[in-house]
Amino acid sequence: GHLDALLRGLVLGKLGKAGHKATLEEARRRFKEHVEGKHILSADLRSPVYVTVLKHGDSSTLDTMLKLHKQADMQEEKNRIERVLGAISQPELIQKVLTFALSEEVRPQDTVSVIGGVAGGSKQGRKAAWKFLRDNWEELYNRYQGGFLISRLIKV
């Protein structure tokens, strides 16, 4: 049922982030098949699989996610990817995600979700996102003209 699907995604996401070996192996297998077009992930499993492979991934994993983002033909999928990019854990890759947030690839209204995902992804991500916000304050403030998105960004 619907609630089981929601619970399954939540449990798998938590197990994957925690590094549960069997969950990580299965997520990597399913992600590979999804990317290759062999077996497309169902919508309810995409976020937990994406989070799991990113949390334990490398630059190649991030590049693949950014490629999926670029190729996505539905904004819903782009937003799903943008929200999970913050799961990446290597400091240089966190910076790459933050730079991506201000790129032309991300709609201005979605930049906040990318930065917020980084801030919520880890203690290291939170520190990096705060520094990024301070370093890019003028651009972000001008982009959002002091509206609700800038206050949401500060809150996250």
TrEMBL record:
All residue ranges annotated as the ERAP1-like C-terminal domain in the record: 2-155
Example of a GO cellular component annotation carried by this entry: extracellular space
Gene Ontology biological process terms from the UniProt entry: peptide catabolic process; proteolysis
Domain of life: Eukaryota
Key words of the record: Aminopeptidase, Hydrolase, Protease
Gene3D superfamilies: 1.25.50.20
GO terms of molecular function: metalloaminopeptidase activity; peptide binding; zinc ion binding
Record family assignment: Belongs to the peptidase M1 family.
Listed name of the protein: PSA aminopeptidase
Encoding gene per record: Npepps
